[in-house]
Design brief:
heterodimer; A: Serine Threonine Protein Phosphatase 5, Tetratricopeptide repeat; 3-stranded antiparallel sheet; B: 1007 residues; Ferric Hydroxamate Uptake Protein, Chain A, domain 1; Maltoporin, Chain A
C-alpha cells in the first residue's frame, strides 16, 4: 500500500475522475426525427400525390359516404339482431337524428379537411410549377366542395404574403372560391383523355364548376335557414350549360354501352364515362385506411362470395322505382366461374356459383326481402346492391377505379339546367339519351320529379343522392323507415362539436 | 401492510429494541465489574439464535479488531478462547444482522440476531439514498420480503398487490406474464400513463413496453404487452419502497407524478458464503368460469327461439363443453438458487432463477430464466467503493389468442362461450369441424392453428462508484445500460376455419415484429452530511442524463401457398407473390429521446424534533419544444415529532406521535411520443409524401401539484401503531392528443390541455402485535384507502372513452369525460326492463358510477408457532363499478337467437330473442369484492447437519376465494387495450383471461 498521503488522496480522485469523465456528456436535447423526412424531403409533386391519395377516404362505407347515402331514400343500415347496431350510428343518419358528436360527422370532417390540408401544403410551398399548382388547386377545390356541401362552412387557411391566416369561408364564399380557383387552374390543367381521370383535367374542373353552379340555389340560401332552397339564377344556369357543353363538345366521352362497365375492375379501360375517379391498381390498397372492396363488403351476406358484412340495403320504394328492363337494375351474374353474385340490385333468393340456393347462418334460405326493418331486421332482410363488381381474384384490393364524376352526370346536369331555364324539349332529349342507353323506356316529358328519380336510378349509391335531393327540395321528406318530415336545418350537418370547441372562428350551424 | 410503521416502532425505541437493552445490560455489567477491571483472557461460550429462539448454525463470532474468531455449530453454540475481558465480540450471520457486544468479563454470552428485514426497517430507501425512518418527512411506504405476496409471482409489482395503502395493483388477467396496472394515489393522466416510475437499485427505468404488440391484424389481432418488469426475478428482491407524495417523489421531478417505486435487490452479507436453493411447484385452475348452458338447456332455448333443430347447423348431435376444451389445470415450476457472501471489503451475490409457468388456457405459457450478479469492492483505504449490478433475463411467452381486436368472429374465450355445445370438435376425417359459415371459428382449431409467441431478452448493467472525499462528503457516479429485445410472432395457418374470410381467403397469415430498446443512464450525485450540535444537515446535488432509443421493425406475410406443411413463421418465403398479390408488408422505425436533469435536496433537522426538507429538480426533455424544454419541480416538507417535546407525557397511553406535511410539484411525460415539436413528413404508401405532424413548439410537462398531511402514532409502547395520511393531487396541463385545428394533415395534435384532475384520499394503517410470546406470536396489519377522483375542470366537452367491444357495437362508448364527475364515470342509458314485445326499454343516459372503488383494504394476519408460521392476507374493495361488456356482447336471449351459447344468469324469460344489443345500465355492476388473496403455511425444520443450515417447507394458496355479486369472472379488471380516440378505458370487462386459483408447494434449503 502506498503511504504517500498525497498519492492516497489523488488515486481515488483520478480513478473516479476517469470513470465519470468517460461517461460525462451534456445534451442540448434536440428533438430529431430519425425515421421521417423534414420539409426538404417532401417535394411538392410527392405531396400532391398524397393529396390525391387522400381521396381513399371517400371509399369508406362510413363517414363521408355514410353522410351522403344513409340520409337519403336509397340506403339504410339496419340493425340486425345483435349485428350492426353500432350505437345507432347508421340509424341516426337515416332518421336525421345525428348530432355534432356523431362519429360519421366527425370522420367526414376530418377526412375531407386532411385532404384540404395536404393540398394546402403544395399551394403554400414556394417554387411550385404551374401544372402542379393547377392540380393542387383542383384537388383542394374538390375537398372544399364537399366540406361546403356537407357542412356549409369551410375552415380555411389563407396565405397573405407568407403569413398563414386562419379564417372561415361561408358557403357562398366557398362556392365562389371553388369557381375562382378552378378558373385559375383551368389553363394549366391537361385536356381530358379517357386515361387521365385519376388527376385533374379541364373536363374534371368544368364538371365541378357545373356542379357548384347548378347548386347555387342551395348554397345561396340564408345560413339561418339553409333548408329554404332558392333557384339558381339564369347566369348560374348558363354557366352550368357552358361548362357541360365544353365537356360534351370535347368529344372525349360517350355513355358506356354496358352500364356496369363503369364500375368494373377494368373500368379504366372499359368505361367511356370517367371524368374524375380514384385511379386504383389491383393489389394496391388505397390511402385513408380504405378500399373499394367496402362497396361490396358493406352489403353482401356472410355466406355470399365475396363474403361480406351483411350490412346496408336499399329501401323498397327506391328498388321499386326501377322498371324491369332498366339495365341499371342489374340481374346478370358477374362471373359464374367464381360466384353466383349478380350486378345491380340483389332481391330474392341468392345462389352460389353452381346455382345452389344459399342459406343464412341458421340454415334458412338466403332470401333478400324488400321489406326491411331499420331497428330489428333479421340477417336476410333488405335488398342489397352491387355496383362495383368484385374482382374475385383479389377481392380485398381490387383495381376498380372509384368514380366521382361520370359523363352521364354532365349530360343530366345540362338537362336539368335546360329544364330549369324552361327548355323542356332540350332537357327531354338529353334525359332520354341516358335512358335509352340504359335500356329504359324514353320519357315523354321531363319534370323535376322524374328528373330527380332518374338521377337516383343513374347514380344510386355513388354519393350524389343527398346533394340531388336537397337541390330538388326533397331531402327532408319522409322516406321508408323515416315517417316524418325532418327539420329543414338537417340539409347541413353540424360542425363537429370538438371543432367548435377549439376554433373560435366557427359558429355552429343553425338548428344544432 | 406497511413496514414503515413497523420500522417506526422499532427505531422510535419504545419497543423491545435489542440494542437498547443490551446497551443497558452492558452498562449494568460494567458497574458490577468496575471493582475488578483488569485485562484478562477469557473463554467465552454461548448460543447465537434468531428472533424465534432457534439456534443459528454457521454464525461468525469474532473479536473486534482481530482475526480471532469462530463459527457456531449446528445448534448455534460457540466457544471462543483467548478473549480479552474488555473486548467486543462481533457476531454476524448471513441473512441476519451484525451485533457488537462488549464482553465485560463475561464467559457466557447468548446473542439474538435479528433478520435483515428487521434491520433494514431502521432505514428506508428514498430517492438517491436512504433515510432513517424516524427522519422521514414524506409519505413513503416500504415493504420487505416478509410482506410480499407469495406463490407464483411473475413480477415485482404483483408482490405488492393489496399490501400498501394508496397503491392499487390490478393484474390485467391470469395470463402468465401479462401486464399489471398499478396506480399510486389515483388516476390522473387521460393519456393513460398512470404507471409509477420504477427505479431498480438506483437506476430509473424507461416506462414503456418491451414487447411488441402487433403488426397487421391478420384476423388474429394484436396482443396485450407483457409486463416490462418480468425481467426482474422476484426472488432477488430485498425490499420495495414506494414514494407516494410529491415531497418524496420530487427528487425524480418530471417523472414522479405517478409515484415512484424503488426496488432494492439482495446483496451479499459479510461472512462465509451461503448457498440457498428453492424449488416450487404449483397447480392452478381457472378461479371462475362462465355458467354456460349445457346441451339440453341450450337446445331447449334454441327451440324457444324458434330455431330449426333439425338442421345440423343448429344441432350437431355432440355434447361438448367448450370451456373444458380450452382450459386446463396448469403446472408451474420454479427453481431459484443464490450464493452470497463477502468480506469487510467485498460483497457478492449471484443468483439464477428458472420458472416454467403454464397458462390455464391450453398452449399458453411463460418460461423464463434470470440471472443476477451484484458485487462491490472497497478500494483505497475504503475511500472508494466500486460495484456492479448486472441482471439478465430470457423470457419466452406463448400467448393465447384472446385479442380484443381479433375480429367480429371473436377471440378464443368468446368462441368457447358462444360455440354451440352440440357441435363436434373434429370432422370424421380428422379436420376441424366448421359450419361452413364464414364467421364460424372452432375453439380447438383456434388453440392449435393460431400461433402467437415470442422471446424477450433484457439485460440491465449498472456499474457505479462512490468516493468518500472527506468525512461526510461522498460523490457517486452511476452508469446504467438497459437493453431489451422483444419479438412477437403471430400466425394463422392456411385453411383455419373462420379465417377464410380474413385477408386473402384462407391463405394464412404470419407476422414477425421486433422491438429493441436501449436506455442509457448516467447520474452524478454528491452528498454532504454534517451534524452541528443537535442539528443535522444532509445535502444532495446531482446531474443526470438519460437517453432512450427505440428501434422497431416488422414484416407481415400472407398469400402462403397451401402446401407449406410446417409452421408458417419458420419460413415467410413460402408465399405466392406473383401478379397483384402483395404478399409482404412491413416497416421499421427508430426514435431517440433524451432527458437531462439537475437536482438538489436539503434536509435539516433540529434535535430530531423539527424537520425540514427542500427538493428541487430541473428536467429537460428532447420531447418538448424550444419554448418549454425545461420544467422545474420543487417540493418542501416538514415534520414535527411531538413525542420529542418536553410537554409530551412519557409513559402514557400514546407512546409516539409525529406530524408530517408536504407540498410539491411533479411531472409526467410518459406515454407521449417523440417528434411532436417538429414538422415531419412520411411516405403515404401510394407514391406520395405527406406531412404527418404540425410542429407544436409550446409543448410542456404535464404537472401534478400534491399536498400531504400525515400523522404517525404508536400506543402501548409501540405494540399498537399506525398512521393516517391525507392527500390531495391536482393534475394540470394534461398532455393530450387534442383535436387538430382543421384543415390539418392530422386529426389530432399533441397539446397541453387546460384541465384539473383531482385525486384526494385518506390512507389508514394499523399494526397490532397481539401476541409476541416466545412460542406463539400473532400480529395483525390493516391498510385501507379511501379515495375520490374528480374532473374539476376540462377545456373540452367532447373527450370520451369507454369503447364497447362486440359485433354490432362499434362506435358505442360508455365513458364520456365530464366535469364534476370522476374520470371514466359510466354514462349509459338507464335500463327500464322489457316492453310487451320483450325488447329492452331504455331511459335517459345518466351517471351510473365510476370504476374507481371508494375504499380499498387489505388485512394481514401473521402467526408464528414454534417452527410453524402462517400468514393470511385478505383484501377487498367497495364502491366501484364495472361494465360487463362480455355479457353485453355475448350473453342472453340475443345470443341464443344467433345460435350461440350464453351464461344462464343472463337469460331472462322476459327478454325477446329478437332483442338487440345496446349499452345500458343493465350491464353496469358493482365491483365490490372480498378476496382471500394469499395464504401461506410454512414449517422450518430444526436442522442438525454440517451440510445444511436451514430447511423449510411452505404451502401457499393464491386467490382461494372471492366473494362478489359481479356476474362476470372477476370484478377486479383492467382492460388496457380498450381505448377510444387514444384514451384508454377503465373498468370495462371484455372476455379477459380468467384469474388463477393456485396452490404452491415450496422447499427452501440453505447450505
Amino acid at each position: 500500500m502506498n503511504n504517500n498521503k498525497f498519492s492516497n488522496k489523488l488515486k481515488p480522485a483520478l480513478f473516479i475522475g476517469a470513470m465519470s469523465l468517460v461517461s460525462f456528456s451534456c445534451s442540448n436535447l434536440q428533438d430529431v426525427a430519425l425515421d421521417k423526412l423534414d420539409k426538404s424531403g417532401a417535394a411538392p409533386s410527392a405531396q400532391l400525390t398524397s393529396a390525391f391519395n387522400q381521396l381513399g377516404a371517400f371509399t369508406d362505407q362510413a363517414n363521408i359516404y355514410a353522410l351522403q347515402e344513409h340520409s337519403t331514400d336509397e340506403m339504410q343500415g339496419p340493425t340486425r339482431g345483435t349485428d350492426w347496431d353500432d350505437a345507432g350510428r347508421w340509424r341516426n343518419i337515416h332518421t336525421h337524428t345525428w348530432n355534432g358528436q356523431s362519429s360519421d360527422v366527425v370522420g367526414a370532417w376530418d377526412g375531407l379537411n386532411r385532404g384540404h390540408a395536404l393540398a394546402n401544403e403544395v399551394i403554400f410551398a414556394s417554387g411550385v410549377d404551374k401544372a402542379t399548382m393547377a392540380q393542387a388547386l383542383f384537388i383542394r377545390s374538390f375537398y372544399i366542395f364537399h366540406i361546403m356541401d356537407l357542412f356549409g362552412q369551410v375552415p380555411f387557411k389563407e396565405n397573405t404574403g407568407g403569413t398563414i391566416v386562419n379564417k372561415v369561408l361561408s358557403r357562398k364564399e366557398a362556392a365562389a372560391k371553388i369557381i375562382a380557383d378552378l378558373t385559375t387552374a383551368l389553363p394549366d390543367l391537361p385536356a381530358a383523355t379517357t386515361a387521365n381521370s385519376g388527376r385533374g383535367t379541364k373536363a374534371a374542373a368544368q364538371a365541378i364548376i357545373a356542379k357548384v353552379q347548378l347548386n347555387m340555389g342551395v348554397y345561396n340560401a340564408d345560413p339561418n335557414s339553409p333548408g329554404t332552397i332558392g333557384a339558381p339564377s339564369a347566369a348560374e344556369l348558363d354557366a352550368v350549360i357552358a361548362n357541360c357543353d365544353a365537356i360534351i363538345n370535347s368529344g372525349t366521352y360517350k355513355l358506356t354501352t354496358k352500364y356496369f362497365d363503369n364500375f368494373s375492375p377494368e373500368n379504366t379501360e372499359k368505361s367511356t364515362e370517367l371524368i374524375f375517379a380514384i385511379a386504383s391498381t389491383k393489389g394496391q390498397s388505397l390511402n385513408a385506411g380504405s378500399s373499394i372492396r367496402n362497396r361490396y363488403f358493406m352489403t353482401t351476406h356472410y355466406n355470399q362470395n365475396p363474403s361480406g358484412w351483411n350490412g346496408f340495403t336499399t329501401l323498397s320504394d327506391f328498388y321499386n322505382s326501377f322498371e324491369a328492363d332498366d339495365s341499371r337494375k342489374g340481374g346478370e351474374v358477374i362471373d359464374a366461374s367464381a360466384s353466383g353474385l349478380k350486378y345491380g340490385w340483389l332481391a330474392g333468393v341468392q345462389y352460389d356459383k353452381n346455382g345452389k340456393a344459399l342459406t343464412d347462418r341458421q340454415g334458412n334460405p338466403l332470401d333478400f326481402t324488400l321489406a326491411c326493418s331499420l331497428t330489428n331486421a333479421n340477417e336476410r332482410e333488405g335488398v342489397r346492391g352491387i355496383k362495383y363488381a368484385p374482382d374475385f381474384s383479389n377481392p380485398d384490393a381490387p383495381g376498380n377505379d372509384y368514380v366521382f364524376f361520370r359523363y352521364a352526370d354532365v349530360v343530366l346536369m345540362k338537362a336539368e339546367a335546360l329544364l330549369r331555364k324552361g327548355d323542356k324539349a332540350g332537357a327531354l332529349t338529353l334525359v332520354n339519351q341516358v335512358r335509352t342507353a340504359r335500356g329504359a323506356k324514353a320519357f315523354t316529358e321531363v319534370t323535376e320529379a322524374n328528373l330527380l328519380a332518374e338521377r337516383g336510378r343513374e347514380f344510386y349509391w355513388e354519393g350524389w343522392r343527398r346533394n340531388d335531393q336537397i337541390r330538388f327540395g326533397k331531402f327532408n321528406d319522409p322516406v321508408v323507415n323515416r315517417d316524418k318530415k325532418s327539420d329543414g336545418y338537417r340539409v347541413l350537418y353540424p360542425i363537429p362539436q370538438k371543432e367548435i370547441e377549439i376554433n373560435p372562428n366557427l359558429k355552429q350551424n343553425a338548428g344544432y | 401492510m406497511n413496514k414503515f410503521y413497523l420500522r417506526g416502532r422499532n427505531v422510535f425505541g419504545f419497543g423491545l429494541d435489542f440494542k437498547q437493552s443490551t446497551g443497558l445490560f452492558s452498562v449494568l455489567f460494567s458497574l458490577f465489574l468496575s471493582v475488578s477491571v483488569f485485562a484478562q483472557d477469557l473463554t467465552v461460550s454461548g448460543k447465537v439464535s434468531d428472533a424465534s429462539g432457534s439456534g443459528l448454525p454457521g454464525a461468525t463470532v469474532q473479536v473486534k479488531g482481530t482475526t480471532k474468531g469462530t463459527s457456531t455449530d449446528v445448534d448455534g453454540n460457540y466457544k471462543l478462547a483467548g478473549v480479552p475481558s474488555n473486548a467486543t465480540l462481533v457476531v454476524s450471520s448471513v441473512g441476519m444482522g451484525t451485533q457488537e457486544i462488549a464482553v465485560g468479563g463475561r464467559t457466557s454470552i447468548n446473542v439474538t440476531l435479528k433478520d435483515d428485514a428487521a434491520l433494514l426497517e431502521e432505514v428506508v430507501v428514498v430517492g438517491y439514498g436512504t433515510q432513517k425512518v424516524k427522519d422521514a418527512t414524506g409519505a413513503i411506504a416500504s415493504i420487505g420480503t416478509k410482506d410480499f405476496n407469495k406463490g407464483v409471482i411473475n413480477s415485482p409489482d404483483q408482490m405488492l398487490a393489496g399490501r400498501v395503502a394508496g397503491v392499487q395493483v390490478t393484474p390485467n388477467s391470469g395470463d402468465p406474464g401479462a401486464g399489471v396496472n398499478i396506480t399510486i394515489r389515483g388516476t390522473a393522466s387521460l393519456r393513460g400513463n398512470n404507471t409509477p416510475l420504477y427505479v431498480v437499485d438506483g437506476v430509473p427505468l424507461e416506462g414503456g413496453n418491451v414487447t411488441p404488440t402487433g403488426g397487421g391484424n391478420g384476423g388474429i389481432g394484436s396482443v396485450a404487452p407483457r409486463n416490462p418488469l418480468n425481467f426482474l426475478n422476484p426472488a432477488d428482491i430485498e425490499n420495495i419502497s414506494i414514494l407516494k407524495d410529491a415531497s418524496a417523489a420530487a427528487i425524480y421531478g418530471s417523472r414522479g407524478a405517478n409515484g415512484v417505486v424503488l426496488i432494492t435487490t439482495k446483496r451479499g452479507k459479510s461472512g462465509a458464503g451461503t448457498f440457498n436453493f428453492s424449488a416450487n411447484t404449483a397447480v392452478s385452475t381457472p378461479a371462475q368460469r362462465y355458467q354456460l348452458l349445457d346441451k339440453t338447456e341450450f337446445l331447449a332455448q334454441l327451440g324457444k327461439a324458434g330455431i330449426d333443430l333439425s338442421s345440423k347447423l343448429n344441432n350437431g348431435g355432440q355434447d361438448n363443453n367448450w370451456q373444458d376444451e380450452i382450459y386446463r389445470t396448469s403446472l408451474t415450476q420454479n427453481y431459484n438458487m443464490s450464493f452470497g457472501g463477502g468480506t469487510d471489503k467485498t460483497s457478492y451475490y449471484f443468483s439464477l432463477g428458472y420458472q416454467d409457468q403454464q397458462g390455464i388456457i391450453k398452449n399458453s405459457y411463460q418460461n423464463r430464466i434470470q440471472g443476477r450478479i451484484n458485487a462491490s469492492h472497497k478500494l483505497f483505504d475504503n475511500k472508494v467503493v466500486v460495484g456492479v449490478n448486472l441482471t439478465t433475463a430470457n423470457i419466452n411467452d406463448k400467448y393465447a389468442p384472446i385479442s380484443g381486436d381479433i375480429g367480429y368472429e371473436g377471440n378464443l374465450i368468446a368462441r368457447a362461450i358462444s360455440t354451440n355445445p352440440t357441435f363436434p370438435i373434429l370432422n370424421g376425417d380428422g379436420t376441424y369441424y366448421t359450419t361452413g359459415t364464414i364467421s364460424f371459428r372452432n375453439p380447438v382449431s383456434m388453440l392449435n392453428q393460431l400461433n402467437i409467441y415470442g422471446p424477450t431478452n433484457r439485460t440491465m448493467f449498472n456499474p457505479y462508484a462512490t468516493w468518500n472525499i472527506v468525512k461526510g462528503l461522498t460523490y457517486k457516479v452511476s452508469f446504467g445500460l438497459d437493453n431489451s429485445t422483444g419479438t412477437l410472432n403471430r400466425s394463422v395457418d392456411v385453411k383455419t376455419p373462420g379465417f377464410d374470410n380474413s385477408t386473402n381467403g384462407g391463405k394464412g397469415f404470419a407476422s414477425i415484429q421486433n422491438l429493441n430498446k436501449k436506455a442509457t443512464t448516467l447520474e452524478h450525485t454528491i452528498n454532504y452530511v454534517k451534524t452541528f450540535g443537535k442539528s443535522n444537515l444532509d445535502l444532495l446535488g446531482g446531474f443526470a442524463y438519460y437517453k432512450y432509443e427505440n428501434v422497431g421493425s416488422g414484416l407481415d406475410a400472407n398469400y402462403f401457398i397451401a402446401s407449406a406443411g410446417f409452421p408458417l413463421l419458420n419460413n415467410l418465403g413460402f408465399v405466392d407473390n406473383t401478379g397483384s398479390n402483395k404478399a409482404y408488408s412491413g416497416g421499421s422505425y427508430k426514435n431517440i429521446s433524451e432527458l437531462q436533469s439537475f437536482f438538489g435536496r436539503a434536509q435539516y433537522n433540529i434535535a430530531e424534533k423539527y424537520y425540514l426538507t427542500g427538493t428541487l429538480r430541473a428536467d429537460g426533455s428532447s420531447k418538448f419544444g424550444e419554448n418549454n424544454k425545461y420544467g422545474i419541480f420543487p417540493a418542501v416538507n416538514g415534520a414535527w415529532r411531538i413525542a420529542g417535546e418536553d410537554f409530551f407525557k412519557k409513559g402514557g397511553l400514546v407512546s409516539d406521535l409525529k406530524l408530517r406535511a408536504g407540498w410539491g410539484i411533479t411531472g409526467n411525460s410518459e406515454g407521449f411520443p417523440a417528434n411532436q415539436t417538429i414538422n415531419t413528413y412520411v411516405p403515404d404508401g401510394n407514391g406520395g409524401i405527406r406531412k404527418e405532424n404540425v410542429a407544436n413548439p409550446d409543448l410542456k410537462w404535464e404537472s401534478t401539484v400534491s399536498k400531504n398531511i400525515g400523522l404517525d402514532w404508536a400506543m402501548m409502547s409501540g405494540r399498537l401503531s399506525g398512521s393516517l395520511d391525507y392527500f390531495m393531487k391536482s393534475t394540470k396541463d394534461l398532455l393530450f392528443a387534442l383535436p387538430a385545428l382543421q384543415p390539418d394533415v392530422a386529426t389530432t395534435s399533441w397539446s397541453n390541455v387546460d384541465a384539473d384532475i383531482r385525486n384526494q384520499g385518506l390512507e389508514v394503517l394499523v399494526n397490532y402485535d397481539v401476541l409476541s410470546g416466545k412460542k406463539l406470536s400473532w400480529d395483525i396489519s390493516l391498510n385501507s384507502t379511501f379515495m375520490k377522483n374528480e374532473v374539476k375542470s376540462l377545456a373540452l366537452t367532447t373527450v370520451r372513452t369507454g369503447a364497447i367491444y362486440g359485433q354490432g357495437l362499434s362506435g358505442a362508448f360508455a365513458q364520456p369525460i365530464k366535469v364534476g364527475y370522476p374520470l371514466y364515470t359510466f354514462f349509459v342509458p338507464e335500463f327500464l326492463g322489457y316492453d310487451d314485445k320483450g325488447l329492452s326499454k331504455l331511459g335517459e343516459t345518466k351517471d351510473f358510477g365510476s370504476p374507481f372503488p371508494k375504499a380499498l383494504w387489505g388485512l394481514t394476519n401473521s402467526f408464528v408457532y414454534g417452527n410453524w408460521n402462517a400468514s393470511i392476507f385478505i383484501n377487498g374493495q367497495k364502491g366501484g363499478y364495472v361494465l360487463n361488456n362480455t355479457a353485453l356482447a355475448l350473453m342472453g336471449a340475443p345470443a341464443i337467437k344467433q345460435g350461440n351459447n350464453t351464461d344462464s344468469r343472463w337469460l331472462d324469460p322476459k327478454q325477446s330473442f329478437s332483442d338487440g344489443l345496446t349499452v345500458s345500465s343493465k350491464y353496469v355492476e358493482k365491483s365490490d369484492f372480498v378476496r382471500l388473496s394469499n395464504l401461506v403455511i410454512g414449517y422450518n425444520f430444526k436442522v442438525k447437519s454440517n451440510y445444511i443450515n436451514s430447511l423449510g417447507l411452505s404451502l401457499t394458496g393464491q386467490n382461494l376465494f372471492l366473494i362478489t355479486k359481479y356476474k362476470g369472472l372477476d370484478p377486479e379488471i383492467t382492460n388496457p387495450s380498450a381505448s377510444m380516440d387514444g384514451i384508454p378505458s377503465n373498468g370495462i370487462d371484455y372476455i379477459t383471461y380468467p384469474k388463477n386459483k393456485t396452490f404452491n408447494l415450496g422447499l427452501n434449503v440453505g447450505f
